[in-house]
């Protein structure tokens, strides 16, 4: 599990560290890391241009230029604000024959030291015009300039980095925006209590049956989804629940015939009231937003077991506040909105997706999984994680129905709801990747790749 820290926390950790290490040593360590990655990207080529802003980010770039010069690279620097350029960095750069120029030229690599942790807003016009002239790959120092460090928001001109070399710890921009390949250089910073985390494969302990388990002890998932118009959503959600764990699945709703035909191992009934006992409910996909659907939402919220509410169930919860009254306050709830559903429920997402999901999680006392290329999961106790899609293959019709079934099965297995949502998001991306294998994959293909994804997870 990798931690991510907001810039204010990084800056104070850096200040504490700077007080006990020799002056300038942190910057030189950082810059040496930048130079090392630059040499790797240059792969024997020899021309680099630095874009140098007014602060320490520019200082890093100038010191990186110094180290590169000492390795025989021809380095030029464009100073965006010569009067404010980092004095020691500039002096060192000049000492080893670094050249100050006014245009980018045609280098093999550009190093972006325009702005780092203190960045606010998009690139200013002078920097934007300069970046526009770049054709070489860009190595960003700390973060791609022009992207908000704490939210990843892109609100105007910004650097499109091939590679980002950052220092000490990851910041939100690295998890929430495209920074190219991200490399972390150790400068001795050891912050604690991250603001949110990123799950890695080795963090995921997928529930598998033990020797004394039977079909009930692994958790029974109930699925209340689908309609005469949308039976497919029920097939996808139920199928995902069937494949995600070895527990039993009960389906309750109008798509029972379609479910029986595709998933003979499920127990199907026409209504949630006849479904029998379950350890978690999935409610919402393709069910419609009519009165009978509202009654189904009311029933599962009152059932005293964890619930994952998706799609139409979220719309109903937004439009019919009285449904919340039915909720068993001790039973976990996972909400899985996309941005428009989130807006119906809690207002616009805004630029800070993590903060928005966190606020909604507290407000609804629910785990909120805000879907997107970078999915955010937040718990009412303040925990948050971000899971990045490795491609856009999961962005296909019915994909959310599959996710709801996976999370439902994990909830039924007894997993902590925050982890159930996080593991579900992770597996969903992996299944899309494996199911696609380089070509578009429908949601049914994503669903059938769930076993391959679990195998891949368990092998690593
Ligand atoms: N602290 C440490 O120990 C270490 C720090 N390290 C490095 O320091 C970096 C942080 O440096 P920093 O705090 O000096 O500010 P930095 O990000 O360079 O910005 C400078 C100035 O840019 C301006 N500006 C703002 N927004 C802008 C925009 N959109 N477009 C254009 N310009 C914009 C604004 O100045 P203004 O023009 O408003 O006066 C701002 O003050 C950090 O990212 C890392 O690289 C490493 O060496 C490791 C050790
Ligand atoms: K930068």
UniProtKB/TrEMBL annotation:
E.C. number: 4.2.1.136, 5.1.99.6
Annotated positions binding (6S)-NADPHX: 56-60, 116-122, 142, 233, 286, 338, 401
Cofactor: Mg(2+); K(+)
Catalytic activity: (6R)-NADHX = (6S)-NADHX; (6S)-NADHX + ADP = AMP + phosphate + NADH + H(+); (6R)-NADPHX = (6S)-NADPHX; (6S)-NADPHX + ADP = AMP + phosphate + NADPH + H(+)
Pfam families: Carb_kinase, YjeF_N
YjeF N-terminal domain boundaries: 10-195
Cofactor remark from the record: Binds 1 potassium ion per subunit.
Gene3D superfamilies noted in UniProt: 3.40.1190.20, YjeF N-terminal domain
UniProt binding sites for AMP: 371-375, 400
Keywords: ATP-binding, Isomerase, Lyase, Metal-binding, Multifunctional enzyme, NAD, NADP, Nucleotide-binding, Potassium
Residue span(s) of domain YjeF C-terminal: 198-457
Binding, K(+): 57, 112, 145
Keyword hit for 4Fe-4S: no
Family affiliation: Belongs to the NnrD/CARKD family. In the N-terminal section; belongs to the NnrE/AIBP family.
NCBIfam families from the UniProt entry: yjeF_cterm, yjeF_nterm
Function: Catalyzes the epimerization of the S- and R-forms of NAD(P)HX, a damaged form of NAD(P)H that is a result of enzymatic or heat-dependent hydration. This is a prerequisite for the S-specific NAD(P)H-hydrate dehydratase to allow the repair of both epimers of NAD(P)HX.
Subunit field text: Homotetramer.
UniProt protein name: Bifunctional NAD(P)H-hydrate repair enzyme
């Amino acid at each position: 599990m990798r931690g991510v820290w907001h810039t204010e926390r990084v800056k104070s950790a850096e200040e504490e560290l700077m007080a006990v290490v020799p002056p300038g040593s942190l910057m030189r360590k950082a810059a040496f890391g930048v130079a090392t990655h630059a040499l790797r990207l240059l792969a024997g080529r020899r021309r680099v241009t630095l874009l140098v802003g007014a602060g320490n980010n520019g200082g890093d770039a100038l010191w990186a230029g110094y180290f590169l010069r000492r390795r025989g690279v021809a380095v030029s620097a464009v100073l965006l604000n010569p009067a404010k350029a980092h004095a020691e960095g500039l002096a060192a750069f000049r000492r080893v024959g670094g050249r100050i120029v006014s245009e980018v030229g045609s280098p093999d690599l550009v190093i972006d030291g325009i702005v780092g942790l203190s960045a606010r807003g998009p690139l200013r016009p002078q920097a934007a015009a300069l970046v526009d002239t770049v054709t070489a790959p860009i190595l960003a120092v700390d973060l791609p300039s022009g992207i908000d460090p704490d939210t990843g928001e892109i609100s105007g001109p910004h650097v499109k980095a091939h590679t980002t070399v950052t220092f000490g710890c990851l910041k939100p921009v690295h998890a929430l925006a495209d920074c190219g390949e991200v490399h972390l250089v150790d400068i001795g910073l050891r912050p604690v209590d991250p603001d949110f985390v990123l799950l890695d494969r080795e963090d995921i302990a997928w529930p598998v049956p033990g020797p004394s388990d039977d079909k009930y002890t692994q958790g029974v998932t109930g699925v209340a989804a689908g309609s005469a118009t949308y039976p497919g959503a029920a097939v996808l959600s139920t199928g995902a629940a069937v494949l995600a764990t070895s527990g039993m699945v009960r389906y309750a709703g109008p798509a029972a015939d379609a479910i029986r035909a595709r998933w003979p191992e499920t127990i199907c009934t026409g209504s949630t009231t006849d479904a029998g006992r379950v350890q978690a409910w999935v409610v919402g996909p393709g069910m419609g937003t009519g009165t009978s659907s509202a009654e189904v939402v009311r029933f599962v919220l009152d059932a005293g077991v964890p619930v994952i509410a998706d799609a139409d169930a979220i719309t109903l919860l937004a439009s019919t506040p009285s449904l919340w009254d039915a909720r068993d306050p001790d039973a976990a709830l996972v909400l899985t909105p996309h941005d428009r559903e989130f807006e119906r429920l809690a207002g616009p997402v805004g630029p800070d997706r993590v903060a928005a999901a966190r606020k909604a999680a507290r407000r609804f006392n629910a785990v909120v999984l805000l879907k997107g290329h970078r999915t955010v999961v937040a718990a009412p106790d303040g925990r948050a994680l971000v899971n990045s899609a490795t491609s856009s293959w999961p962005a296909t019709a019915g994909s959310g129905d599959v996710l709801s079934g996976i999370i439902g099965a994990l909830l039924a297995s007894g997993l902590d709801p925050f982890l159930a949502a996080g593991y579900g998001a992770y597996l969903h991306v992996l299944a899309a990747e494996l199911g696609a294998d380089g070509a578009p994959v429908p949601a049914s293909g994503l669903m059938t790749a769930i076993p391959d994804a679990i195998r891949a997870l368990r092998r690593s």
